[in-house]
Every structure is written in C-alpha cells, then in structure tokens.
C-alpha cells in the first residue's frame, strides 16, 4: 500500500529512522516498488523510491518534496569514508526573463531552506539494490552558508542576464555551480544571447558542489 504523506516533522523523521540501515533492495521489496534491472538509464530511481517510502507529495512540481512541511528531500550517495560521491541537483536554472529575480525569492533558496538529507552508501562496487540507507537528518543553511549560496547564485545569474550563459562552467561558484542538465545534446532550450536575442542552448541546472555537502555531513556527524 502506498504510504500516506507525513502530517508532522516528527512523523517524517520517525519514518526516516525506520528505514535507516535497510538496503535499497529491502526497502523496494517492502513496498513492492517497481525496480529496474539496470540503473544506468534509471538514475532517478533511488530518489523516487525514497520519496515513495517517505510519502513525499510534490512530484515534479517546483515546490519542496513535502509541501505542507516545507521540507525538500535530498538523497546523497557517500563513500565508505562518508564523503559525497557526486554533486547534488537543486533545481532547473531559469534562462529567460531573469531580470528582477532575487535570491530571496528564487526557487533554489526555497528548495534549500529546509532539507532532509539522506546519505546512502553509494560506492560503485556495491550494486544499487545492496546500497545501505544511512541516518537522515534535517538541515537549515546557516547565515554564512546562505550568504555563500547567494553569492554563487547572483554571480552566475548575472552572466545569464547579460547573455553570457555559454561562459558559465562548473568551475564557477564556491558552493554551487550551474551546468548542463539534459539527457543528451539534442535537447535544447531558449536563452538570452550576447546581443539580447534568443539563442538555443542546453538546459542548465543548479548543483551543490561536493565540498559544500561534505561540510554539511561533517557538521552533522563530526566526521
């Protein structure tokens, strides 16, 4: 039976506690959740399984996963040593009509205002179904982290507004980068060009860098 949405943060965290220590395969079979044979083409499967088991409601809407609680869920693949193995997708980057956008009202800030982090042992030598779910925890950005994210957001959004989207690379940003987010290079979208004209480019997304998420883990678990 599909889990109903949690009605309080305590209820959500109880569910998080209940799945800690299980493998993804054990959790999937517990809910008869559809499991692919290969995860190469199903990169989002882990997140979908966890969302399903915890009763997330947002789906693909640009709101936090647990809408009524205002909490965003982020699974975080970690190494044997507890270090993040990959960057964390936050939200799609707007490439048009960006004038007047502010950090305070941005989708990125809404998504990162209150995050439920769920570390999962994700070393490449462990098949996905045998990967263990760790101890999830709630996180709010500190004033310092918020300021760091704001600087990265403003620096890169300014380039988009100036029609310089193609100058943005993963090297920009201390905590957060913008990089292409598309299944393949044939998928393109509209963006502002150098002279204010509309150009075609790859869709982009905001991603938290592993150095930033490593700090969050370090704070939480005193690694």
UniProtKB/TrEMBL annotation:
GO terms for molecular function: endonuclease activity. Residues 54-152 form the DNA mismatch repair MutH/Type II restriction enzyme Sau3AI domain. The keyword Cell inner membrane does not apply. Its main location: cytoplasm. Pfam families: MutH. It is found in: Cytoplasm. CDD domains: MutH-like (cd00583). Keywords: Cytoplasm, DNA damage, DNA repair, Endonuclease, Hydrolase, Nuclease. Sequence-specific endonuclease that cleaves unmethylated GATC sequences. It is involved in DNA mismatch repair. Belongs to the MutH family. This is DNA mismatch repair protein MutH. The lineage of its organism: Bacteria, Pseudomonadati, Pseudomonadota, Gammaproteobacteria, Alteromonadales.
């Amino acid at each position: 039976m599909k889990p109903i949405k949690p009605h309080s943060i305590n209820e959500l965290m109880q569910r998080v506690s209940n799945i800690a220590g299980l493998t993804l395969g054990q959790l999937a079979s517990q809910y008869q959740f559809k499991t692919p044979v290969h995860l190469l083409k199903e990169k989002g499967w882990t997140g979908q399984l966890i969302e399903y088991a915890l009763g997330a409601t947002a789906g693909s809407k640009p709101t936090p996963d647990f809408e009524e609680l205002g909490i965003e869920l982020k699974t975080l693949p970690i190494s044997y040593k507890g270090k993040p193995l990959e960057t964390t997708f936050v939200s799609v980057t707007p490439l048009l009509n960006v004038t007047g956008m502010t950090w305070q009202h941005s989708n990125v800030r809404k998504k990162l205002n209150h995050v439920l982090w769920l570390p999962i042992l994700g070393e490449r030598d462990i098949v996905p179904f045998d990967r263990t779910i760790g101890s999830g925890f709630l996180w709010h950005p500190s004033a310092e982290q918020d300021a760091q994210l704001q600087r990265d957001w403003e620096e890169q959004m300014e380039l988009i507004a100036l029609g310089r989207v193609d100058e943005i690379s993963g090297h920009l940003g201390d905590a957060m980068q913008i990089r292409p987010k598309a299944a393949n290079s044939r998928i393109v979208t509209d963006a502002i060009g150098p002279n204010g004209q509309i150009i075609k480019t790859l869709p982009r997304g905001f991603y938290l860098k592993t150095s930033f998420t490593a700090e969050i883990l370090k704070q939480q678990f005193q690694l």
